[in-house]
C-alpha cells in the first residue's frame, strides 16, 4: 500500500537536511527516520501497529526516540510505549502537541 501524503510529509519534516528515511535496523526492519541522535516513527494505525513501531524505536539504540501519531491516538501511544519499555516522546503529526514517556518501572509499587 502506498504512503499517505501526510505520512511522507511528516517523515520529510522529521528527517530535516541530514536525516535518512527508511533506515534498516536489526531484524531487517525499517525505521521511518534516523538522524545522528534521533529515531522517529510515524504511525497512523491502531494498537498492533503502535506496538510494532515502539519495538522498532527500542531496537534503534538512539538516545532520542519519537513516535508521531494522530492526536486522537496519543494516549494509546503513550500506554504502548510504557508497555514495551521505551522512553521517549509522543507527538501528534502536526507537531503542536507532545508528551514525554518514561520507562515503566516494573517492580515499582503503586500508591
Can you describe this structure?
This protein is of the alpha/beta class and 111 residues long. It has one domain (5-101). It has 3 helices and 6 strands; from the N terminus they run αβββαβαββ. Strands 1-2-3-4-5-6 form a 6-stranded mixed sheet, sandwiched between helices. Helix 2 crosses helix 3 (74-84). It starts with a helix and ends in a 10-residue tail after the last strand. The model has no long low-confidence stretch (mean pLDDT 88).
Tell me the helix content.
25-40%
| Portion in strands | 25-35%
- Give the SSE string: HEEEHEHEE
Alpha-carbon Rg, integer? 14 Å
Assign an overall shape: globular
Count of domains: 1
How far apart the termini lie comes to 46 Å
Major sheet: order of its strands? 1-2-3-4-5-6
Q: Indicate the structural class.
A: alpha/beta
Short description:
By secondary structure, the chain is α/β, with parallel strands linked by helices. Helices cover 32% and strands 27% of the residues. The protein has one domain.
Secondary structure: elements and pairs:
Blueprint: H1 5-15, E1 20-24, E2 30-34, E3 38-42, H2 47-59, E4 64-69, H3 74-84, E5 88-92, E6 98-101
Parallel strand pairs: 3-4, 4-5
Antiparallel strand pairs: 1-2, 2-3, 5-6
Amino acid at each position: 500500500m502506498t504512503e499517505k501524503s501526510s505520512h511522507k510529509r511528516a517523515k520529510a519534516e522529521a528527517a530535516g537536511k541530514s536525516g535518512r528515511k527508511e533506515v534498516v535496523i536489526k531484524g531487517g526492519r525499517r525505521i521511518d527516520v534516523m538522524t545522528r541522535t534521533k529515531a522517529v516513527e510515524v504511525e497512523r494505525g491502531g494498537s498492533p501497529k503502535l506496538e510494532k513501531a515502539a519495538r522498532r524505536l527500542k531496537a534503534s539504540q538512539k538516545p532520542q526516540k519519537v513516535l508521531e501519531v494522530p492526536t486522537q491516538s496519543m494516549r494509546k501511544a503513550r500506554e504502548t510505549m510504557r508497555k514495551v519499555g521505551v522512553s521517549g516522546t509522543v507527538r501528534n503529526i502536526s507537531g503542536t502537541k507532545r508528551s514525554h514517556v518514561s520507562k515503566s518501572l516494573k517492580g515499582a509499587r503503586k500508591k
